[in-house]
């Protein structure tokens, strides 16, 4: 019996994912990135402390680069969808709704 590769895991995770789920997951990734990089609550103070102490380290730069962080967040989302098939869709929809609401509020302020 052969061992499952990372490609096998990702293929099985996305083989039955509908377009709606992919859209919700993409919005959830966007929200997770904003939570880490922009929002003051829950990680604002922690983010600032890490950047002060380790600002010259490569991993600390991850906190400043949305593109860099998003690939890691997306990988985490793919794993979450595979490992927690009942819980993740609920959390993903909450994160997606928060992301959409934030964009709508921003548009309303214009």
Task: Describe the 3D structure.
- This protein has 110 residues and is mostly helical.
- The chain has one domain (19-109).
- It is built from six helices and no strands.
- The chain has helices spanning 6-15, 19-37, 44-54, 58-61, 66-83, 88-109.
- It is flat, with a radius of gyration of 16 Å.
- The mean pLDDT is 84.
Number of strands: 0
**Cα Rg:** 16 Å
Please identify the structural class as seen in this structure: mainly alpha
Main beta-sheet strand count, sense and barrel state: none
Which residues form runs of ≥5 with pLDDT under 50? none
CA-based shape? flat
What is the helix/strand order?
Answer: HHHHHH
Q: If helices are DSSP runs of H or I spanning 4 or more residues, what is the number of helices? A: 6
Strand content: under 5%
**Tally of structural domains:** 1
User: Can you give the helix content as a percent range?
Assistant: over 70%
Distance between the termini: 59 Å
- Overall average residue pLDDT: 84
For the structure shown, list the relevant keywords.
6 helices, mainly alpha, 0% strand, flat, 110 residues
Fold topology:
Elements: H1 6-15, H2 19-37, H3 44-54, H4 58-61, H5 66-83, H6 88-109
Helix pairs in contact: 1-5, 2-5, 2-6
Characterize this entry briefly:
The protein contains six helices and no strands.
């Amino acid at each position: 019996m052969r061992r499952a590769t990372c490609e096998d895991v990702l293929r099985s995770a996305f083989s039955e994912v509908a377009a709606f789920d992919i859209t919700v997951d993409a919005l959830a990734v966007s929200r997770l990135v904003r939570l880490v990089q922009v929002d003051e609550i829950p990680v604002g103070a922690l983010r600032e402390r890490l950047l002060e102490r380790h600002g010259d380290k490569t991993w600390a730069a991850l906190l400043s680069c949305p593109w860099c962080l998003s690939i890691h967040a997306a990988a985490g989302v793919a794993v979450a969808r595979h490992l927690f098939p009942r819980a993740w869709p609920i959390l993903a929809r909450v994160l997606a709704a928060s992301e959409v609401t934030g964009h709508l509020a921003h548009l309303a302020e214009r």
